[in-house]
């Protein structure tokens, strides 16, 4: 007399059956694809190949065009006049308004250098805030560092100090990348609903310090503690 199957045995059989079924589906799909390719005549295959080549060529051309416009590296621009020219040329621009004496600008530089190489679809620039008073006033830049995020020649968004980056000096490059992704200024492949903060609990706790420093007509460091 055969022993009755235990629940574990039954589950095992069900799983094996599931795996066999899904393998069968995959195999059938592959067979259909292979058959489709087999049935294609020379002309159709040639057309398919041409389409792939065209797409690759287009991607390469786009990449070359970006590189020729100064994408792919993080660059300092000497003046306000250069800013307008650079912004006119490129669809997506990130411009870091910095000051030599501000320690947090060096932190921002480090991350932007990495992102400029990774996201060549976007132009990454830096401009000395003290040499660009007109722009700082026009763009209402009060806190250093500030990133102006410019799309199609219009400033869409700002990253002011480190408030949006977990409020910590040791935020990761991934955190800044996520923030730029939220503004749709880079092609972000991660999940925007899942910010990669190093320390979630610090997030959003010290707005007052930054707010206090945005007094009209004067630019303040986000890392200076004087009132």
From TrEMBL:
Highest taxon listed in the record's lineage: Eukaryota
Keywords: Cytoplasm, Cytoskeleton, Nucleus, Phosphoprotein
Thioredoxin domain sequence ranges: 80-163
CDD domains: Phd_like_TxnDC9
Subcellular location: Cytoplasm, Cytoskeleton, Microtubule organizing center, Centrosome; Midbody; Nucleus
Protein task: Significantly diminishes the chaperonin TCP1 complex ATPase activity, thus negatively impacts protein folding, including that of actin or tubulin.
A Pfam family per the record: Thioredoxin
Gene: Txndc9
GO cellular component: centrosome; cytoplasm; midbody; nucleus
Assembly mode: Forms ternary complexes with the chaperonin TCP1 complex, spanning the cylindrical chaperonin cavity and contacting at least 2 subunits.
Entry-linked InterPro entries: Thioredoxin-like_sf (IPR036249), Thioredoxin_domain (IPR013766)
Source organism of the structure: Tachuris rubrigastra
Official protein name in the record: Thioredoxin domain-containing protein 9
PANTHER family: THIOREDOXIN DOMAIN-CONTAINING PROTEIN 9
